[in-house]
Amino acid sequence: MAESETVSVTDPLMPTYARADLAFERGEGAYLYATDGRRYLDFAAGIAVNALGHAHPHLVAALNAQAAKLWHVSNLFRIPEAVRLAERLVAHSFADRVFFCNSGAEAVEGLIKLARKHHHHAGRPERYRIITCSGAFHGRTLTTLSAAQNPKHVEGFGPLTEGFDQVAFGNLNELRAAITGETAAVLVEPVQGEGGIRVADPDYLRGLRAVCDEYGLLLLFDEVQTGLGRTGRLFAYEWAGVAPDAMALAKGLGGGFPLGAFLATESAAAGMTAGTHGSTFGGNPLAMAVGNAVLDVLLADGFLEDVQAKAQDLRGKLERIVARYPAVVGEVRGLGLLLGLRCVVPNTTFAARLRERGLLVVPAGENVVRLLPPLVIGAAEIDKACDIITRVCADWPREDGAQEATA
């Protein structure tokens, strides 16, 4: 397939995606099988969604069992599996309260609403503005686009939603200077995924906690991509030893089934009373069955420690590739199995050549390709992926300036 080849616009789908001319009919573990029969090693994982790979037997069994009983009843009634999933998330996090929705963007929208309602409920309605960071990605709704303020994403969708002030990622001094009497909260990703796999320094996250405590602000973490074991702990904030007041989750929470959530402390959620927020499909029995099945696996003894060990193995092998081919790839970034290769050559071309050899990855900002294997990835698959990356680097055309480093 040519590097720039995408599906021609001959179907009724809106052409909002630059899709590769590739379709899959089934998946198993870390592999996807295309309609032409070719097998691909999946280090994209549906953009960090298929945390347990494809067709995981425990998830399939849970979904099938629930599908045979009940799909949807709405939140006008109690949903026992939703209560159980919420109880488990609370037991393994900082939070006291959980709201279930369907996507990451909805979860972040929930954080924004919660922050404003929190201060209004406390008699401070003037505090509604939220400080966000450059390079962030929080979703594709108008409000989440306005929070991130990425020029590429917001062009043509103005005017933006009011109420966001952006500062440099990692700069506490700039953040302090942006706080006013109207500031309600700080919203940050512990690792910026779309922004180029930029990892927040633990001291920076601890500093954010201290600043928010000093000024009476809510600290909001967007863990849509980093949560649910992706970094080697259940939640990325655990690495810094600090807790937010509220957090957004999605992606890996459903293991491929649409599922999002936002979690909060009792204090932060005090204003979220009956009628203040809702979702028709959020917390439906199908999603809850799968979410609980995902937690069954993630919370099993030794699972997250195994993720950390595999992440260390993969990172070490990638760093050796970078040392060997510095004219093609210049740096390894990331945390756990949320890793990125900063490319010297164009990242989209690099990703296309990996795909031609059977490895799927995801481009990101700052000329990075993301490596997001399922958390159940095996040592053999890690070796296979690194072999493909090595061969692409070794075969890079000399006229593109790529040469193997000499001793």
Brief overview, please?
This protein is of the alpha/beta class.
Task: Assess the beta-strand content as a share of residues.
Answer: 15-25%
What is the helix/strand order? EEEHHHEHEHHEHEEEHEEEHHEEHEEEH
What value does the Rg take, in angstroms? 21 Å
**Total domain units:** 2
Q: Under CATH, the topology of the largest domain is which?
A: Aspartate Aminotransferase, domain 2
Overall geometry comes to globular
CATH superfamily label of the largest domain = Type I PLP-dependent aspartate aminotransferase-like (Major domain)
- Describe the largest sheet: 7 strands, mixed
Going across the major beta sheet, what is the strand order?
4-12-11-10-7-5-6
Oligomeric form of this entry?
single chain
Structural class: alpha/beta
Could you give the distance between the termini?
A: 35 Å
| Helix run count | 12
CATH architecture assignment name of the largest domain: 3-Layer(aba) Sandwich
Low-confidence sequence ranges: 1-7, 399-407
Number of strands: 17
